[in-house]
Amino acid sequence: MEYGLDLEYSFNEFLKGFGLSSEIAHIIWLPLPMLLVLVSAVVGVLVTVWLERKISAAAQQRIGPEYAGALGVLQPIADGLKLLVKEDIIPAKADGILFTAGPILVLVPVILSWLIVPFGQNLLISNVGIGIFLWIALSSIQPIGLLMSGYASNNKYSLLGGLRAAAQSISYEIPLALSVLAIVLMTNSLSTVDIVNQQSGAGILSWNIWRQPVGFIVFWICALAECERLPFDLPEAEEELVAGYQTEYAGMKFALFYLGSYINLILSALLVSILYLGGWGFPIPVELIAKFLNLPINAPFIQVFTASIGIVMTVLKAYLLVFIAILLRWTTPRVRIDQLLDLGWKFLLPISLANLLITAGLKLAFPQFFGG
Amino acid sequence: MSIAITTQIICFTILSSVILIGALGVVLLESIVYSAFLLGGVFMSVAGLYLLLNASFVAAAQVLVYVGAVNVLIIFAIMLVNKKEDLKPINDIKSRRIISTTICLTLLSLLIRVDLTNVWSLSSPQNSIGEESTIRIGEHLFSDYLLPFEVASVLLLMAMIGAIVLARRDVMSKDISTGLPVDQELIEKSSEPLLTNKT
Predict the structure, then answer these.
(1) What ipTM describes this predicted complex?
(2) pTM across the whole model
(3) B174 DSSP β-pair partners
(4) Which site in A80, B45, B96, B135 is 20 to 30 Å from B11, CA atoms measured?
């Protein structure tokens, strides 16, 4: 299955043409995909913020942002600029160091998780062997940042928000990891590239959503809870806690939280599409299209076509899920904290455990359908 | 020296100094909250050391278990029990300090002895299993390390049941800390949602 563009290899060969050693070429290559992913994550956030404003407006029969650019597309950039030039305030009684470190600790793990998001066979920063497990591990760092900023703000609403956020992400991490484990069991690998390749056999029919419907729903609920989106946005419930752990924040530090939550939402949507919706796979296998066009799979045209289709499909699926998340936010009420914990521990945890057990049994019974 | 080795040495120096300074900070700092957060930093740096040793699975597990679970729970507990309390002066503080220092020094000498007597056979990079380590760990856990694995899970189960018994005071008639009989009516009330009988 080693086909597709290998940009790194071509880039290194290109630099070696100038007489550079392969190590130096590698060092010059290293920051490029990171920068690209950072930029695409930020652009993704801008798009999502615009979508959020427009869709919420439609849901509430308003018009939404209109004057900044056509259909208000420049509104999120205006928002970002406003936050960028705002005064950076640290409250007098707050703990300066922890107050500053909190937002960083929230944002960095989320961005680091983009390491494993594949947009094509070779279109990811690093195909690490532990792949999806790295994401689960990194997402468990976030509550520390939330607790830190909640504590450092020296404000009871912030502290309560931070505690709620930590409790929520601890409880929902377990069903999340268990439903990922069922996928890993079917793939025999933790690598995200292998997970997508395992679903690429027969186009839309081989996507994991048909084999793991329960896991898909559990994962999506848990991902929403981890992102603190409505109906699970208790940590920043406006009516109860002002803005939770963000209450005392202003300017760029607040923007870091804002960015973090939106990047996390896009990341979760991307991961749902990778784990359950075939990742970069087109609903019809690309091999069939190539055969139909009488072109060999290694032809340069087909390779560029496959790569661009892959990126478009991944982004399209992710944004479809983001759209569902936004619709959910503007149409559902918030759950209470006891309902939230009940749902997590008494419903999702047993369900995902049973799902894992059934997957293991089915894998033994039908190895050709559930991964041998 | 190639670039890869230089990077490794720089990373190792930074990580180990963070571990040492962080660990000292955990013990020596006055504020318990700072200690708890520094402990998280120490755990992260240990995970970084595992990464340098090509053990990515162990590194991720370290982050998940120690940072994501243990450290978060420690911070959680500190923040929920943030009671301002004047600590009573301990009478025999000197002898206690002497005893704890002796114990720590003994442990240290034991570790140094292990370090000196053990033959640290550094395998060449070709021999390291790298990404395959996840599979190897799984194989070992379900073959020759099955008994320790199961015993550890039984231990965790026992701890969990103990915690539930402590948390649900209605299973006992007396309060554990004070020894007074537990007000059962209060428990009944608190276990019901507050809004149900207000209609």
Answers:
(1) 0.80
(2) 0.82
(3) B181
(4) B135
